[in-house]
Amino acid sequence: MTDNLLRFNKNQHFLTWDAETENLALFNCPDHRNRPWEIGYILSRGKEVIKEGELHPWWPDLNVGKEAAIITRFNHYDYRQKATDARKCYEQFAEMLYDPSTIIVGQNVLNFDAFLVQNWRQELGLKPDWSFIERTIDTRALAFAIQKGVKSVDRDDLLCWQMKFMNTREKGIKTSLEFLMKSNGFHYDRTKHHLAIEDSRMTRDIFMKQIWEVEI
C-alpha cells in the first residue's frame, strides 16, 4: 500500500527549519557555549506554506566565532536590532517543534541543529527534551539513500535508518545543500546560503522532491 506515503498526504504538517549559531560545538560547556542566534522556519501543510519567519534569540554575551561570522555574514549591530527575548523566541518555536502531529525536516538536523535546541533549553534552565527526534527527517540522510539506489525507508525505525546514512561517508556521494540544489535542478544563490530562512526554503524544496524519489 502506498496511499499513506507523505507524497500523497496533503494534510500533513511539516516544520522545515535551520539555525545559525555561535560555532560548531554540539554542547554547551562552562567556557564554550554554542547557542542559536538565528532560526529560520517554514510551517507547511503538504505543499502549502502556512507561515514562515525568522527568530533572533537575544544573548547579551553572544560570541560568534570569526570564521562563523564570515560564513553567516553575522553583523552584531543588525543582530541587536532584530533580537528579542530568548525565552519568548523559544516558546514560539517550541510550539511548532513539539507539536506531535508535525513532521520536522532539516538539512543535517540530526547531526547538528537538534543539539542546538538542547543548548537553547539549557540556557533557559530547561531539561533536555528530544521527543521531536522520532518525528524528524533529515534531507542529508535521504540524499545519501537516494544516491545509493534505496527506494524505501525503514518505517519501523526511521531514526536508526537515517543515522546509518548520516554517519557514513562514501566516495562519489555528495549531500551538501549546494550540491542537492544544483543536482535537483533548483536555482542556487551562494550569497543566500547560510541565511537561516533561505536555507530552510532550499531544504524544503529538496525535501518535496525527495519524497517522490524514496518511499517514506
Which terms would index this structure?
single chain; globular; alpha/beta; two-stranded parallel ribbon; 216 residues; 8 helices; 5-stranded mixed β-sheet
In short:
The chain is of the alpha/beta class and 216 residues long. The protein has helices spanning 66-72, 76-82, 86-97, 109-123, 139-147, 158-166, 177-183, 196-210; strands at 13-21, 36-45, 48-55, 57-58, 84-85, 102-106, 136-138. The N and C termini lie close together (12 Å).
Q: Order the strands across the largest sheet as they lie in space.
A: 3-2-1-6-7
Q: What are the secondary-structure elements, in order, as H or E?
A: EEEEHHEHEHEHHHH
Number of helices: 8
Radius of gyration: 17 Å
**Average pLDDT rating:** 94
Q: How is the biggest beta sheet arranged?
A: 5 strands, mixed
How far is the N terminus from the C terminus?
Answer: 12 Å
Helix content: 25-40%
Strand count: 7
